[in-house]
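Sample intake sheet
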Amino acid sequence: MFPELNNLLNTSPDRVEQGKVTLLCDAKTDGSFLVHHFLSFYLKANCKVCFVALVQSFSHYNIVGQKLGVSLTAARERGQLVFLEGLKSSVDIFFRAEEEPHPLHFLSCELLGAKDWDPVLCLL
């Protein structure tokens, strides 16, 4: 999406550095375009991504992703993307029946398949 940004970070989808964490923080400016950039970047690099969405829905990110050349639906179906609706899950924590599974049960390593993931990227 942003070749200049990739040059500054000395990275490309062809050579993703394992074990590296990218932290995004914005103040007084909307930096959400960077979330879209890094999400599409890591999916194009064939990394496994765990994305915790706290602002928008899956549909929103999927539409933007398609404009950037990636399908979040296809990535999720092939096991490359785990998409967590953070706000929906946080509400479910407080308003669920006792017998229902915990809404964040999917965070266990076995369910995410973390043993097979190299690298694991978690975007919040």
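Comment: Residues 116-120 have pLDDT under 50 and may be disordered. The beta strands are 48-53, 81-85, 120-123.
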